[in-house]
Task: structure prediction
Amino acid sequence: MDDEKQLQLFDGFARDAIVSEREAPVSWHLDNEPVPEPAPRRTLWPETDRRDDLADLAAVAEAACDCRRCKLGGMRKNAVPGEGNPNARIMWIGEGPGADEDEQGRPFVGAAGRLLDRLIAAMGLSREEVFIGNVVKCRPPHNRAPEPDEVRACLPYLARQIELIRPEIIVILGGTALKALIDPRSYITRMRGKWIERGGIMIMPTFHPAALLRDPAKKHDVWADMQQVLARMK
Ligand code: SF4
Result:
């Protein structure tokens, strides 16, 4: 089955699930709402180098685009710092850019990205309301998983993005990101659907959209995980 057919499958599944499981709309920060008081600083990885010098998300993106802290910096076409709402209540974090992302400098723009877009839309949200990023900002060659030294070098950028955005929820997409961000001994098949609390932020691990393209049956698990996310957002 080709990617487009799999995406269509998710469309139908998601629409049915919305009708049966969602009753109330989710509220989000709107432009005309008062800006909330800054929350206390949230640090998920206290041992990571701090980048307090990066004052906002644009500064983080600029620093990542100039970065050569690890070997991936010399292999990329474009760094992919991540994008989205600076006041997002929810962040989505994958493992790293693929070929399409490397080409465009934007996260989740290939087939897996289109499926993620549909999942986000099925939840009643839009890409502009959330923030989407990755553990490493440059593409690992041949789509291999980022290596531990690359994760260590890049983590200060993600940590700073999380500090600046102060999301209520982080959705970790896939086992590689879970191992990099939470515990190298963890497995996505065991941890998905279970909340983790770190630094005052609730973290929900779930399958990566690329895994759903390979195995559409996992969409039911992901949708169940997202129901938990939606319930917490109300
Ligand atoms: S992956 Fe991260 S640490 Fe490595 S060069 Fe790119 S931005 Fe820098």
Remarks:
- The two ends are 37 Å apart (CA to CA).
- Residues 3-17+49-233 form a domain with the Uracil-DNA Glycosylase, subunit E fold (CATH 3.40.470.10).
- Strands lie at 83-84, 90-94, 131-134, 169-173, 196-198, 201-206.
- Confidence is low (pLDDT under 50) at residues 13-31, 35-41.
